[in-house]
Amino acid sequence: MVDARAVVRELQEMREEGHLSDALLRYTVKTLHRADDRFDWVGVYLLDDEEAVLWLHNYVGTPTDHSKIPVGKGVCGTAVAHGANQNVPDVSEFAGYLSCNPAVRSELVVLIRAGSRIYGQFDIDSHLPAAFGDQDEVAVQMIADKLAEQVARERR
Ligand code: SME
After folding, report:
1. Rounded distance, CA 147 to CA 15, Å?
2. How confident is the model over 10-65, as pLDDT tens digits?
3. Which of 6, 46, 90, 119 has its CA 20 to 30 A from that of 147?
């Protein structure tokens, strides 16, 4: 399990040192991937509001064809369309699931948001079925909320 408080502290220190969201997002993806054996693929998508598309910013894991996902498509696009995190215990049961690797069994998407404004999301895939619990979602959300502070600041 990732130590979300430690990651949030590190992100705050990076902000104080002047690092921008690009560095923070890359650091977080690597840290999440390293922190937990269940996290086989970790990536971050950023939302292009005007085009209603998610763009893959950076990831660790096997290469994926899904560098661009329309809002409403797949687990990722559904999270944005519904304004809600998605914890999918069995991806084969998810209508419209976009597969990037047949080994993936479950997926967790946590939004990077400030209130109703969605900036993007963390997408985590596991080769284990039903790999993610509420505690994982809470931990990743704490980290996503910290990142949202920096992204919001840069967009103002
Ligand atoms: N499975 C995702 C697509 C992204 S890949 O997992 C990297 C989806 O259904 O939206």
Report:
1. 10
2. 999 999 999 999 999 999 999 999 999 999 999 999 999 999 999 999 999 999 99
3. 90
What lines the ligand 1 site, CB under 6 Å? 41, 43, 64, 66, 69, 74-76, 97-98, 100, 107, 123, 125
Best CA proximity match to 124, nearest among 142, 136, 112: 136
Provide the pLDDT confidence category of residue 70 given band limits of 50, 70 and 90. Answer: very high
121 beta partners? 45, 111
Pick the atom of ligand 1 nearest to 125's CA: 6
Q: What are phi and psi of 59, to 5 degrees?
A: -155, 165
Token pair belonging to 22? 């690009």
Closest ligand 1 atom, residue 76 Cα: 10
